[in-house]
């Protein structure tokens, strides 16, 4: 059964894509929450410099040294960025925009000068080709397992172990760095450890999806999850689900439309982000529209209650507290006036006798709460 699974190209492609998304989500969630998500873009490009330097020194195209070199390059990117920010002459986003193009361009130049005839090239590093991951295999016992599956599986487990072991510390350092420092949790060290894992994930992923597509996986699923929930553990769950679904649907659509598999996986993460942006239960455009409409309707009912209350018992009550007066005094057209009166009656806030409108005890209490907001609390204390 395992042999059949490992020999199934479609399953291997989708599984590797899902692992890239899961590993990226585990570290990307904290980057998104900290507002440092573009550091993943910087690291994804800057690792080209680390990869080519390691190759020039060791002539190894893969393995632990490549992983270490890329990870250290990611840290170098962060350190240089922080040095620029510490000068107080540039902001963090500008510092990122200054550092990673320099390292990236140096890496590309070195690749074109010294690695033209080697498997390492700009297209491979930046774009990758997830459709071929099932061809590059290693033998484990009786099975031939894709190399990308092993490397991404290892990074996923490593990222999960780091997040699991330091979850509380990472959570506190993310939302209240000052308190974390006061408690001696070394938030700076935790953040640099997180970036080290981000760099390792990037270099482990570049053979499969490329550095550019890695950025999509490390940012978009956590951002999608952030639109769906405010609970950190649920962000991980939603981000992982988005990664898995994006990998599966991206592969299916890519095969159906004969387009890039990795590219379509990245597109599907964007599709899920769009769905969350439009239909999210709390921050979605549709949900916010319904909330605004509900608030507007509530304000209209409150306005009517206050209007009737202000004129209740006055000599002009018979002229003011009638349906036709709403158009003149509240500037409502007839259709709007009818809707507000109907909703107020449904909520048992007013009664209507012909044209005359009368507040019920509930409507009168609502008007008093609006006009005298401190009265209820004062009555309660008394």
Coarse structural class: mainly alpha
The average pLDDT value, as a whole number, equals: 86
Low-confidence stretches: 377-382
Helical proportion? Answer: over 70%
Rg over CA atoms: 30 Å
Global outline = elongated
Query: What's the order of the H and E elements?
Result: HHHHHHEEHHHHHHHHHHHEEHH
Strand count, sense and barrel status of the largest sheet are: 2 strands, antiparallel
- Oligomer description: single chain
Span from first to last CA? 75 Å
Strand order of the largest sheet: 1-2
Fraction in beta strands? under 5%
Distinct helical segment count: 19
Number of strands: 4
Molecular structure report:
The chain is mainly α and 382 residues long. It has helices spanning 2-6, 9-34, 38-58, 64-86, 92-114, 122-127, 147-165, 167-175, 177-182, 187-205, 210-228, 232-257, 261-279, 285-311, 317-320, 325-329, 334-346, 361-371, 375-381, and strands at residues 137-140, 143-146, 350-353, 356-359. The chain has a two-stranded antiparallel sheet. Strand 1 (137-140) and strand 2 (143-146) form a beta hairpin. The radius of gyration is 30 Å and the shape is elongated. It starts with a helix and ends with a helix.
């Amino acid at each position: 059964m395992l042999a059949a699974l490992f020999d199934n190209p479609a399953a291997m492609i989708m599984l590797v894509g899902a692992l890239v998304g899961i590993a990226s989500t585990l570290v990307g969630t904290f980057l998104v929450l900290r507002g440092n998500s573009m550091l993943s873009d910087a690291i994804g490009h800057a690792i080209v410099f680390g990869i080519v330097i390691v190759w020039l020194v060791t002539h190894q195209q893969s393995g632990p040294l490549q992983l270490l070199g890329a990870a250290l390059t990611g840290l170098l990117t962060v350190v240089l960025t922080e040095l620029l920010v510490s000068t107080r002459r540039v902001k963090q986003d500008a510092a990122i925009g200054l550092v990673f193009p320099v390292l990236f361009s140096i890496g590309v130049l070195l690749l074109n000068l010294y690695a033209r005839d080697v498997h390492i090239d700009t297209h491979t590093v930046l774009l990758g080709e997830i459709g071929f991951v099932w061809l590059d295999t290693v033998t484990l016992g009786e099975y031939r397992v894709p190399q990308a599956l092993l490397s991404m599986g290892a990074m996923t487990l490593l990222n999960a172990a780091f997040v699991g072991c330091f979850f509380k510390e990472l959570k506190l350092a993310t939302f209240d760095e000052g308190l974390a420092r006061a408690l001696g949790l070394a938030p700076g060290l935790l953040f640099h450890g997180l970036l080290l894992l981000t760099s390792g994930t990037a270099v482990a992923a570049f053979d499969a999806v490329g550095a550019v597509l890695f950025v999509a996986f490390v940012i978009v699923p956590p951002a999608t999850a952030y639109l769906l929930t405010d609970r950190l553990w649920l962000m991980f769950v939603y981000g992982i689900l988005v990664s898995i679904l994006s990998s599966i649907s991206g592969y299916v659509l890519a095969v159906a439309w004969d387009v890039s598999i990795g590219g379509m996986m990245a597109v599907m993460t964007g599709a899920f982000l769009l769905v969350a942006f439009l239909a999210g239960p709390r921050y979605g455009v549709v949900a916010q529209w319904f909330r605004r409409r509900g608030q507007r309707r509530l304000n209209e009912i409150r306005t009517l209650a206050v209007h009737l209350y202000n004129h209740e018992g006055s000599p002009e009550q018979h002229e003011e507290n009638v349906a036709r007066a709403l158009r003149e005094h509240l500037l409502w057209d007839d259709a709007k006036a009818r809707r507000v009166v109907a909703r107020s009656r449904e909520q048992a806030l007013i009664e209507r006798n012909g044209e005359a409108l009368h507040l019920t005890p509930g409507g009168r209490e609502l008007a008093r709460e609006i006009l005298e907001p401190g009265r209820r609390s004062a009555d309660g204390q008394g």
